[in-house]
Design a protein that fits this description.
Elements (H helix, E strand, L loop, with lengths): L8 H9 L25 H8 L8 H9 L13 E6 L5 H19 L3 E5 L5 H8 L6 E5 L13 H13 L8 H12 L12 E4 L4 E3 L7 H7 L4 E3 L2 E3 L8 H11 L14 E6 L17 E3 L2 E3 L4 E4 H4 L2 H12 L2 H4 L4 H12 L5 E3 L5 E3 L2 E3 L36 H6 L13 H6 L15
Parallel strand pairs: 1-2, 1-4, 2-3, 6-12
Antiparallel strand pairs: 4-11, 5-13, 6-11, 7-10, 8-9, 13-14
Length: 446
């Protein structure tokens, strides 16, 4: 097998601010935490060899695979994968918007099934409208009641106080009971649903989102063939008021269960080492830096868009971590979100080399928008900077401490990505009305 390409600093610079000949060129982490492995897959080479809709299905092939029980569990070379969406009947119009664009830009060529989840039965109108938008198989499932209700170990009075308090201080959807159930389900239950037992991969699709770019390769084959566990396209800051105890509980889990931590785990990019914690005994230092003993900087993979391995989420390590957090009540006494929990879980239990930045997929959810820099992607959107969405989820008046570098730059690594202009000072920039992140030598994906 050919040796994987290891990015040099000059190549990263070129990829950031100059036009690229390969429209599917995607950045991967470049720091020392990603250890060279001559036997590892080469995602860039895979993209060169498998783009141009190589695995697009004919109608005959589609009908054949739909007729095979359990999606050809023992015979199909096609990944056992699905597009999944947690959605209400009332969100039909928004979901139709999402489906139209993703079907047009991608799934009409690959015909992966859709699995819709709801906390109540889907209406006939919902089923007819969504099935009419795709040639793929559609499944309509109800979330089990025990996965969408208050656990018996939760103090209801304390929970109601939490709803009132978080709503009063303006935490996003902090007053909504259903939102707490949703975060908990996305964190620890979606992958347990019986409908997904015959699937190995998923792509999460939210109602009322936009997909801007033509995608001409099989996303699920790409993940499977390159041994990737998790894919994202935004890495941004979250509102720390939602989960004040999340990091202390995560540290406690690490101390209690060091056997679950992957030997190549890297949390340095998630830790603010300028604020060392006196109670953290775990070190996730990469070969080139940081100590890993600071406080969580509140960076997260924006999980409204994520492609992942169901085997990873079903793993003993992820299950143990979710159960640890769940029993502590953080989904109800605070407002733990699935995005920071997925981020911390992936960072602890997956080597960085198995996490992928889908820079080439244009996507928008509410105010957060990502659009790749190269027109060769055939995108219906204006390119966004690398740091475009960094702190849109954090209120401007929040006193929350922000990391020295933006989340995506910290994840991708050092070198030119975090190099600052000579004489630049963040405090001076903020004094003049800037956000304190305008000092990079290269301003991003423009």
């Amino acid at each position: 097998m050919p040796q994987p390409h290891l990015w040099k600093r000059s190549e990263v610079i070129d990829a950031l601010d100059q036009p690229i000949s390969n429209p599917y060129q995607v950045l991967r982490p470049t720091d020392a935490s990603v250890k060279p492995n001559k036997h590892a897959p080469d995602p860039m080479k895979w993209l060169e060899e498998n783009s141009n809709n190589k695995y697009a299905e004919t109608a005959k092939e589609r009908d054949f695979w739909r007729s095979v029980p359990a999606w050809g569990k023992h015979i199909s070379p096609k990944p056992r994968a699905a597009l999944i969406s947690l959605v209400r009947n009332s969100e039909l119009e928004g979901l139709m918007q999402s489906m139209r664009q993703l079907e047009y830009h991608w799934n009409r060529k690959y015909n992966y099934p859709w699995v819709f989840f709801n906390d109540e039965e889907f209406s006939d109108e919902f089923k007819a409208a969504t099935q009419n938008l795709t040639n793929a198989q559609c499944y309509y499932e109800v979330v089990p009641q025990e996965h969408w209700s208050l656990p018996d170990w939760i103090d209801e009075g304390r929970f109601m106080n939490s709803l009132e308090y978080l709503g009063a201080i303006g935490v996003g959807k902090g007053w909504m009971v259903s939102y707490r159930h949703m975060c908990r389900w996305n964190s620890g239950f979606f992958y347990k649903h019986p409908r997904l037992k015959d699937f190995d991969w998923y792509w999460r699709v939210e109602p009322d989102v936009h997909f801007f770019c033509s995608i001409d390769y099989d996303i699920f084959r790409f993940m499977r063939d390159n041994n990737l566990k998790y894919g994202f396209n935004m890495n941004i800051l979250d509102d720390a008021r939602s989960f004040p105890s999340l990091w202390s509980r995560t540290r406690s889990f690490i101390n209690a269960h060091p056997e679950h931590i992957h030997p190549d785990a890297d949390l340095d990019w998630l830790l603010d080492n300028d604020s060392p914690s006196s109670s953290s005994s775990a070190t996730f230092s990469s070969a080139g830096g940081g100590g890993g003993s600071g406080e969580y900087n509140n960076c997260q993979f924006f999980s409204n868009f994520e492609v992942g391995s169901l085997a990873f989420f079903r793993s003993a390590a992820n299950e143990a971590y979710f159960n640890w957090l769940d029993r502590a009540g953080g989904f109800y006494y605070e407002r733990f979100g699935d995005a920071p929990i997925h981020t911390l879980s992936v960072a602890m239990f997956v080597p960085k080399s198995e996490i992928w930045f889908f820079r080439d997929i244009g996507y928008q959810h509410d105010i957060n928008r990502h659009c790749p820099p190269n027109s060769a992607h055939r995108c219906d959107c204006e390119p966004t900077r690398l740091d475009e969405n960094f702190y849109k989820l954090v209120p401007l008046e929040s006193p929350q401490r922000k990391p020295a570098d933006t989340c995506i730059r910290r994840f991708l690594g050092g070198g030119g990505l975090v190099e600052k202009k000579e004489g630049w000072n963040a405090d001076v920039e903020r004094a003049w009305g800037g956000d304190g992140y305008g000092g990079y030598v290269l301003s991003g994906l423009e």
